[in-house]
């Protein structure tokens, strides 16, 4: 009786094991992406860089020139014959420049933060689309330093970059065209 019970138990374990092997999940496919490369090379980043230069380039240059002028004034103040009034005026102009520079940096930083947030969302959406289309289960960023080696066949950077550029171009196409003020005034 024990022999029959052991045989039946063994039969169920073997047959159950075979059916479990049929239901085993496929091996995980892992892809890697270099987020830093995408952030530097994508069309959105290039357009943002140009936009920031055209919007803030003159102001930045002006602040740099004022900074150079302040340095020259500081050199002139080293003369022991410099009056106290000139020293006070120098300190006031330096403080004003520092405040103006801080305000400028805050303005630029706020726009950069907004862009980075938009960029991260674009990259995540692009990575999702590429991974889904190519059958990958995981996509890992190699920029963070957690990946020491990845087979080049796992690199999805170019595909994700292309998808980011596509998403960016699609978002530009969806934006309504701005109407010139002259047209809106002429209609009134």
Q: What does this entry show, briefly?
A:
With 188 residues, this protein is mainly alpha-helical. Helix content is 73%, strand content 4%. It is elongated.
Provide an overview of this structure.
The protein is mainly alpha-helical and 188 residues long. It has one domain (23-46, 54-176). It is built from 6 helices and 2 strands; from the N terminus they run H-E-H-H-H-E-H-H. The protein has a two-stranded parallel sheet. Helix 3 (43-76) packs antiparallel against helix 4 and helix 4 packs across helix 5 (157-174). It is elongated. The chain starts with a helix and ends with a helix. Residues 9-14 and 181-188 have low confidence and may be disordered.
The largest sheet has its strands arranged as 1-2
DSSP strand content = under 5%
Question: In whole angstroms, how far apart are the ends?
Answer: 101 Å
Low-confidence stretches: 9-14, 181-188
- Helix segment tally: 6
Q: Estimate the helix proportion, in percent.
A: over 70%
Rg over CA atoms, rounded to whole Å, is 31 Å
| Main sheet makeup | 2 strands, parallel
Total strand segments: 2
Properties at a glance:
elongated; mainly alpha; 188 residues
